[in-house]
UniProtKB/TrEMBL annotation:
Descriptive protein name: Outer membrane protein OmpA-like peptidoglycan-associated protein
Cellular component terms (Gene Ontology): cell outer membrane
Species lineage: Bacteria, Pseudomonadati, Pseudomonadota, Gammaproteobacteria, Oceanospirillales
Chief location: membrane
Keyword Membrane carried by entry: yes
Subcellular compartments: Cell outer membrane
Length: 217
């Protein structure tokens, strides 16, 4: 019976690793992310430690240790995959940044011109986001608003705050805990494109949702 925790951890590691494969863009071969591999090793080690302990508390702690080790990389991998599936074709960009996930929502699909209320046509997309965030609730969320450089700096800052707040409030209505949400406004200070062209300004007008694992906080 002492070997059961170790066996459980090994099986769990294999299952998660098999579900978190990606494709090498150069060779086309399947590969497992480094975060998942390292996490799986952690899970096996922790499970083995638990198998050598006699108390139930020690065994539970060891299993928890394994889940933490495996969870960060594999958990975010799974969340990213689900978000990409749910948001395909919506106009929302999903970007992976280390262990974090960033959703980039252009204002042309999110808000009306100079408006801070979420457009009703975008509700279904935010519902999909909330659905995934509800399933993967071991993460914290930073909603940030951004504008182009048109108009005054103070106006742009206020508008960016209002738009980020609108998105956060909608997610709260979809049962995403306020404790997980932070709102920030950047106005025109963080462009991702040039403000000298119409397309660049359109790219800069956006709301972003940064999804971070709780382990980082």
């Amino acid at each position: 019976m002492k070997l059961l925790p170790a066996i459980f951890s090994i099986l769990f590691a294999v299952l998660v690793m098999s579900g978190c494969q990606t494709y090498d863009p150069y060779t086309g071969e399947k590969q497992v992310s480094k975060a998942t591999t390292i996490g799986a090793i952690s899970a096996v080690v922790c499970g083995a430690i638990g198998s050598r302990k006699s108390s139930k508390r020690a065994r539970n702690a060891a299993v928890g240790c394994g889940l933490i080790g495996m969870g960060v990389g594999a958990y975010m991998d799974a969340q990213e995959k689900k978000l990409r599936n749910e948001l395909e074709g919506t106009g929302v960009r999903v970007a992976r940044e280390g262990e974090n996930i960033r959703l980039i929502m252009p204002s042309n699909i999110t808000f009306g011109v100079n408006r801070a209320e979420v457009q009703s046509s975008f509700y279904s997309t935010l519902n999909s986001v909330a659905k995934v965030l509800g399933e993967f609730n071991e993460s914290v969320l930073v909603v940030s608003g951004h504008t182009d450089s048109s108009g005054s700096e103070s106006y742009n800052f206020d508008l960016s705050i209002k738009r980020a707040t609108s998105v956060a409030n909608y997610l709260k209505q979809r049962e995403i805990s306020s404790e997980r949400l932070k709102v920030r406004g950047f106005g025109e200070s963080s462009p991702i494109a040039t403000n000298s062209t119409e397309q660049g300004r359109a790219d800069n007008r956006r709301v972003e949702l940064l999804i971070e694992p709780k382990a980082q906080n």
